[in-house]
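User: Predict the structure for this protein chain, please.
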Amino acid sequence: MSKAENPTISVPITVTLSEQSVLLLEGIAEGGIYGKNRAEVAARFIDQALEDFVVFARFKLPLRKDNKQALARVYPNAEDAIVVRSKRPGKQARKR
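Assistant: Here is the predicted structure, written as structure tokens:
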């Protein structure tokens, strides 16, 4: 049976971790449960931590409207935890 395709788009990022964290990720990857290598394991842990942060903590995220719509597709149960950033009235850029 083939693995189901991930419905979300993946975007590569660079993360700097301590040597101890990297060794821990490599050890977890050896078991193959969370990923085949340390990068896959790290991605899984980051995804899970972000989901917990947004969905379970009900953190109010100040997002642009397009980002809100994208997050709502990924985390449909977090709709009430996602707010759109509003522009602060009365603030204007200074002329130079």
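The mean pLDDT is 76.
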